[in-house]
Amino acid sequence: MTKCLECNEILKGREGQKYCSEYCKSSYHYKKNKLKESSIYVKIDKNLKLNRSILKKYNISGQSQVKTELLVAEGFDFRHSTHTWTAKNGNLYHFCYEFGYRDLQDGKYTLIMWQDYMK
Questions:
Q1: What is the pTM of this model?
Q2: Which of 18, 28, 71, 97 has its CA 20 to 30 A from that of 48?
Q3: What is the rounded CA–CA span in Å between residue 88 and residue 70?
């Protein structure tokens, strides 16, 4: 008799069956894919999502300033952003999805949110 690849229950039903339920099938593949997390794509995706959540946390008003040390302490990674935007005055903003930042060169960053006119 064959057993479920996830929970080792004895399988009942059709021949060639590998899992006893959809839950076990999903759980098995989740754990299997979790082992592949060392890929560069997954690491960058995690960094982008972390960066976004940090920017969101400190940009409550839609435009604010925050100290560099605070972003770094939260785990912000300045190497990863989704896109950039240059304002009419030449200021370059880096974005993590809809939340952006600009280095003020004095130990602070200006935080902004993406607006429709920025297209």
A1: 0.69
A2: 28
A3: 28
